[in-house]
Structure formats: C-alpha cells, structure tokens
Amino acid sequence: MALAVLGTGKLAAQTGPAPERTVTSVRFRGNHAIDRLTLEAAIATSASSWTYGVPLLKHLDLGQRRVFDELEFRRDVVRLQILYRQHGFFEARVDTTVTRTAGSVAVRFTIEEGPPVLVDSVAVHGVDGIVDAQRLAARLPLAEGKPFDREQFDASADTVALAIQNRGYPFVAVFRNYSVERATRTATVDYEVVPGPRARVGDIRIDGNRSVSDRTIQRSLAVRRGDRFSQDALYDSQRSLYQTDLFRYVTVGIAPDDSIVDGVDSLVRVQVQLSEGARSRFRAGVGYGTIDCIRSQATFSTANFIGGGLRLDLAGKLSKIGVGSPTDWGLGNNVCSALSGDTLFSRRINFFTSATFTQPAVLGRRSTLTLTTFGERRSEYKAFERDGIGSSLALAFGLGRSSLLTWSYQLTYGSTTADPGVFCVYFDRCQQQAIDILQERHRQAALSLSLIRNTTNSPIEPTSGSVLSLDLSHASPLVGSEPLISYSKEVAEGSWYAPLARGWVLALRLRGGVIQPARSFVGDTSIRYVPPEERFYAGGPASVRGFGRNEMGPLVYVADTVAVDSSTGAVTPVNLRISPVGSYAITLANVELRTPSPLWPSHIRLAAFVDAGELWDETAGALLPSGLKVTPGVGLRVGTPLGPLRLDVAYNDYPRQQGPLYEVIRTSSGAPEQLRLVESNYGGPARGTAFFQRLQVQFSVGEAY
Q1: Is 295 strand, coil or helix?
Q2: Is the CB of residue 603 less than 8 Å from the CB of residue 638?
Q3: Which run of H or E residues covers position 156?
Q4: Is 0.85 surpassed by the pTM of this model?
Q5: Do 194 and 161 contact (CB within 8 A), yes or no?
Q6: What is the DSSP letter of 325?
Q7: How many angstroms separate the first and last alpha carbons of the chain?
Q8: What is the structure's pLDDT at 12?
C-alpha cells in the first residue's frame, strides 16, 4: 500500500505542478474509539488557523496558513490505518472526501473502525517466589476484554519490570510476546521474566557536588548501604534532592560503568550524579489586582546558607499602591475603582516582610523544619485591617508521595481594626471604650495541625485527581495567647477533578468549617470573641461567585446619621458603610464543567458552574445552616504563563443580606462616643430587579479551585 501511494505521487508530479490551495478545514466522521485531537496529531494535513480567515488578522500576520499537499494527504490515510491498528482495530478502513475550489481545500476523513481485537488473556511467567503472577497481571494497563493496544502492551512490560526491580532484582529482563487470531479477533499476551540475581545496595557514589557536603546529600536519599535494591527508592531519592532546591540537575541510578561492588553481583553500586544550582536568586515583579490595585513583590533566596542545606528566603510585598497612603495617586477613581467602596481599609498601603529559614531532612529525608519572622499590614475588603509582627515554627512530614502533615506554632503581637459596628455585634452595649479595647494590640498564639493529600496532575489547571485537606488550630492562654483570644477552629476541604472527554473536565469542591470560641471578658461584659481575621467570609471569585467579595454572610450597616420618616417609619441613612461581620461556621459547594472553546481551544476555555454556600452562627445552637444560597453562572478562561485569566458572570436572585443598622453618636467635639441601634433587620440599599442588574461579574487569575 505504501509503494502504491509513493507511485501515485510520482504520477501526479509528472502531470505538472498542482495549484497551491489553502486547507480550510479537516474533519473526521465515524471515529468513536479515538478522539479528534489524537487523529489530528497523527496526520500531516491540518487546517489553517481561524485567524487566517479574518482579513484584518491575516494582514497583521496573526493567522497561520496551511497548504494542501496531495502526497502527504494520501499518506495520511495510511497513517490513520496504522494508528487504528496500534489501538487494536485491525479492520479499520479510511475513506476521504475532498472539496476543492480555485484556492482552497476542505478535507473529510470517513472512518469505519470495525470491531477491535480484544485481549483474551494476559500471563506473566518466571516470577514464582517473587510476586503473585495473577495479582501482577491484574494491575497491568493491558486488561483482558479490552482492545489490544500496543502502547498499553509496552507499558505493561515496563510495569512488570518495575515490580520486580522493587523487590530487589535490578537486572531484570522482560520478554514480551503476543499472538493475534484474526478469525476470532482475540489476542493472547505473555510476558516472560528473567529476574537475574537479587541484590542489595553495596555502595553509594556521589559525583558533581561542590559546596554541598556528601552528608547533606545522603540525608535526602531513600537508600542506604545494605538496603534491598528498589527502583522506587531511587526515584524517591531523586525527587527528594530536587525538593531541597539545591540542585538544577539530579539523576540517581545504578552506576553505568561499574554497577557491581567487588565483583559480587548481589551488591550494586548506586550513583548520584548532580549539578548544583545557583547559590543565590533574586526575583521581583509588579502586577495588578482588582482589590490590590498595583502590587509588587521581591524575593531573595540563598541556598546552603551556612551549610547543611539550610536555605534563607527574604521576601517583601506591597499592595494597595496607588490608593493607599503614602502612595495615594487617585487611582481609586479610575483604574482601581473597585476599592472606592472601601473607605476604611484601603486607605493605607499594605505590606508584608519576612525572613524564613528552611532546613530539609531534619528528622529524616521527608521532614522539613521552617522558622519565619514577619511584619505585616494586611486588610480584607470592607472587613478589617491587621497590623502586627510575629514568628512561626513549622515541622512538616511527607507521608508517601502525595500527603503532607504539618505541625506549626505561630505567635503574633498586633492589632485588628474593623468597623465599630462589627465589634458592636458582640456586645450588649456599644461604647467606644469597649471597642477600643478590642482594637488594641494583643498577643495571639495558635497551635495548628494541617494534613493535605494532593493527587492532581497539575498545580495550575488540574484535569484529574483530587486535593483533600484538614486544618485544625487552637488559641488560648494554654499556648500563649492573652485570655481575650481563645478559640478552636476546624476546616475540611476536598476538590475532585474528573476528565469526561478530551479537554472536558468536571470539577467539584466541598468545604466546611466551624469555630468554637470560649467565653472571655471585656470590662464587665462576657463575650465570645474571635478576631475578625480568623472568622469565615464568603462571596467573591473563589467562593460563591454570585455575591461580591465577602458580601454573602452577615453584614452590619453603620451610618453617620439616620433620618426617620415620622409618618412611614422609613429610615434614610447618610454616609452608609456596609461591612461583613464574618461568622463562626461555613459550608460551600461548587460544581464546574470546563470545556475547550470552539475557537482557539488550546488557549481559551469555557465554563458553566453552580456555586452554593452559607455562613451561620453555630454558637447560637444551629449545627447546620437553615438553607443554602445557590448562584449559577458561566465563565471564560484565557491561558497565560501565570495561570488562566478568568472572567465569571453569575446570576444572583437573592435580596441583600439583612443586618443591624447603627448610627454613630458623637460627643460635642465630634469624636465618636458609641453606636445606637436603629433597626435590627435593615435590608440595605435595594438591589435592581432587571436581569442584568442581578448579574455579578468576577475577574481574577487562576482557577477558583
């Protein structure tokens, strides 16, 4: 068949050059076992980009033209038949339809896949006394009853070899055999294993290190002299060395030129070949965020700081540049207009500075000790502003390849400023004196335990796997806090990603948390107090997208003055501020379908989602929320090197959250003295009733979860 194709091509060439035509489309019909993208990657003929068909973009040289090649097109038929044969479809037939015009060509491949050749049996021989042959065969990618796929056939041989190597046989050889019965459309597969001698690690040779000592490297290895040989242990050693951030190149394997020790084939020599990375690194960047305005950050890292693999990281971040003092350039009126509604907590620039010491392999190769000192000023949109200094100590243990357990202790000294109405919610009386006590600097200490298991295939845009996490923290005088700050906090979260088809992903997230505050006293008032920065908030681009940032939960309304209509009783607040209070319990659920865009699918993706959640006060006796707020929506994602640029539009049919309305009572000099409760269930400014007035637009970088 290949000779016929070549011969036909020569005849076509003898008749004279064919006119040059642009490929406008390449379509497939009848393919079920193999998706379109795989078929497109297997052939030479491809369609011109859609931008080439737009005159303006074509003139700007943004479109890519693909010219039709008659010979390659005919070879594509053979390529597709070979591809189907490799996937077990030996009887697949490919027909073509070509629509030609004076300057263009549209191509269609019509495929009759036919019945596949199915795997009748898979057997592994030569592993008696090493592994259970039947169990090993059941774990292979190539399974009985499935199409005979050559890629899975080869991958299964590698799986067999790795299983034997992990049981101490480094020189194993796996011979693969198969036979196909065309009449019955079945295949019989056999793997013959020659394990070779069983071996232990007799010597470890380290090459390529200059400033990092052999002892530091050995602490990160998963193998020791005398250990039974395991290929997985070599892979784990390579991964651990990369994670120290000391090396730019690492390989760990059997020494290629001197694999056995002293001529004894039961002792193998492991070679660690590496190249050290840059000793010091400096990075800086400037960006923009909806609620950060202009932001910048810089980091300086030095590896092997004083030996032993110790790393020092110095970091600094600034945000609210352009709207916060002393850099108020008036950007809140234009570029950063999203911050114009936050008159309390976006008035000053936010900063974070830290020095972090990281010691890997402190209690074994899977453990890391981290000590951090920091100073910060950070604010949450319309909620609070936090100023403080502190230190934290964390000890992390790797559990397997995908789980991490971290114990940490953090001690801070600082103050939290919030709208007086937020503090007033927690008192029977709303004197400014009591509020000032809560806004003074306090010592806060927390002991935390975090467990996370991550099996996703990508940290930026996962398409399969899951992320499960559990965070527990406790603050009280027992761990060093002032008596005012005493609570326990538990948060559990899970995210799952399931591929449905080529490029289609179903993403699901569930999150729940609860805070249990202890009673403390401010003056003669007993309260349950949790600092605003520790409470739960919801609403925004990463939670329930039908609500603005932090606007889904309890709200408090504070006005400078309140006018009351004597005839109707209607209230009219002047200079009204709306602040989220936060809550002691949260539940969130998100479902999102992510699909490729019909236009430029490699860079643009579409999404349809439904978000649901609620905040409530579980200390009032409600263990579960009375109901959930549900908001559906659609989204657009554009790929960038930093992650997807995300635009979401969600529909919100709920009225604004009700909350207490307070009026500021001032002294004769104009200073605030206390807050007076005007209305317990004030509904705030009315939402619009038109469809487009119910839409909430969210813009951010990175997936929601």
Answers
A1: strand
A2: yes
A3: helix 150-165
A4: no
A5: no
A6: B
A7: 51
A8: 42
Tokens 């005839």 locate to: 567
Residues 109, 140 contacting (CB under 8 angstroms): no
Cis bond leading into 517, ω under 30°? no
Separation of CA 703 from chain center:
7
Structure confidence at residue 63 (pLDDT): 65
Please provide the DSSP assignment of 422-433 as one string: HHHTT-SS-BHH
**Residue pair 162/231 in contact by the 8 Å Cβ criterion:** yes
- The yes-or-no verdict on residue 5 having pLDDT over 50 is no
Give which of 611, 615, 582 is closest to 698, Cα–Cα: 611
Q: Both tokens of residue 520?
A: 């403390």
Alpha-carbon distance of 196 to 194, in angstroms, equals 6
- Give the C-alpha separation, 675 to 604, whole Å: 51
pLDDT tens sequence across 260-297: 766 666 889 999 999 998 889 999 988 888 788 899 99
Q: Which two tokens stand for residue 684?
A: 């705030």
Residue whose C-alpha is closest to residue 473's, from 394, 415, 373, 400 = 394
Residue of 359, 170, 131, 156 whose CA lies nearest to 252: 170
Q: Identify the three-state secondary structure at position 179.
A: strand
Cα diameter, the chain: 105
- Residue 241, token pair as written in the block: 């060395």
* Identity of residue 309: G
Which token pair is 214?
């052999």
pLDDT digits (tens, 9 = 90+) for 183-214: 999 999 999 999 999 999 989 999 999 889 99
Q: Which amino acid is at 354?
A: S
State how far the alpha carbon of 478 is from the alpha carbons of 341, 372, 446, 485, in Å.
Answer: 40, 22, 10, 11
* CA–CA gap between residue 131 and residue 626 (Å, rounded): 55
In angstroms, the Cα distances linking 229 to 157, 166, 539 are 20, 7, 53
* Strand-pair partners of 414: 388, 442
Q: Is pLDDT of 43 > 50?
A: yes
* Residue 678, Ramachandran bin (φ over 0: left; ψ between -120 and 50: alpha; else beta): alpha
Q: How far apart are CA 194 and CA 128, in angstroms?
A: 11
277-to-209, 250, 504 alpha-carbon distances in Å: 10, 10, 38
Segment 273-283, tens digit of pLDDT = 999 988 899 99
Distance CA 385, CA 222 (A): 46
How far apart, in whole angstroms, are the C-alpha atoms of residue 588 and residue 299?
34
Amino acid at 130: I
- Supply the pLDDT for residue 288: 83
> Distance (Å, rounded) from C-alpha 257 to C-alpha 318?
54
Token match 């009026």: residue?
663
The alpha carbons of the chain give a radius of gyration, in whole angstroms, of 33
Task: Report the DSSP pairing between strands 200-207 and 264-276.
Answer: parallel
Phi, psi of 65 (to 5 degrees): -95, 135
Q: What is the C-alpha separation between 195 and 169, in angstroms, rounded? A: 6
The two beta strands, 104-112 and 22-29, are: parallel
If you count them, how many residues does the chain have?
705
